[in-house]
Amino acid sequence: MSNSPQNPVVKAQAEMIDSIKSYQGATLRTIRAWSDAFDKVTPKTPVVELPDDMKPAVVDPVEVVDLNYRFAREVLDLNRTFSLQLIEAMRTGRPTAAPDAAD
Which ranges in the chain belong to alpha helices (H)? Predict the structure, then answer.
């Protein structure tokens, strides 16, 4: 399968990526606008330091995202390897070309 932009699968994938980028951009703009508006109408509150015994229970959201995407990447890599192994297993024992009629 060609990676040429004319390939229908590659073209559909590129269009899907563009759509995802578009809605993600719109979502980010909306959340930023909402957050800015919310900040303007809510009173400023002091930052409260958590007690040391509670700090381990609070998880950094960036760390959660990183852990989940690391896991997803491992699953995708595992499935890719498995898919390629399946293709190879289906080829094993099969002739790759038609036998020569002269034999």
Answer: 8-41, 61-91
